[in-house]
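Supplementary Methods, section 5.1.

A reviewer requested that the exact input to the structure prediction be made available. We therefore reproduce it here, unchanged from the version used in the analyses.
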Amino acid sequence: MNTSRNFKASLIVAALLSFTVAQAVTVTKEQYKADKTRISADYKVDKKACDALKDNAKDICVQEAKAKESVARAELEYSYTGKAADQTKVLEAKAKSAYAVAKEKCDDMSGNDKDICVKEAKAAETKALADAKMGKQIGEAKKEAAEDKSDANYKLAIEKCDAMTGDAKTSCVAAAKAKFGKN
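The structure derived from this sequence is encoded token-by-token as follows.
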């Protein structure tokens, strides 16, 4: 029973963490505000539904409602801004939320089974946070590489302008600065 419960908890954590963040589809400010209100209302409804439960089942229900709200808010922020940093925050919110829910579910256990359950949940969270961090580092490396390419192309354009004279050179330099954002 405890082994199957551990396995189920692990599957739930893995399922929550395995969702990849889709490409951001930016939403309007009005839609953002409406969705923010909807998320808060959904949380209140979800939390209210937990009132009928008792003991740890209620705690699990409340934690699931909080997790759902946290992830929804992070996803909304990402869909509004489209920033890579917000995408990373979505992954972090999913990892932390999955851990909180899994840890709460471990409270139904005792002794070594509970210790193992908590450690499995923590290991899954650590792995997911590391994956999110790695994605962030890859994103930063891509941004840095893009900046390096842009700088190299700017230097090449300026070098080509040096072969010109007078107004042609001035115009060429101004065009290169505008194209590569070097004002």
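Helices lie at 2-18, 29-49, 55-81, 84-106, 111-162, 166-179. These observations are discussed further in the main text.
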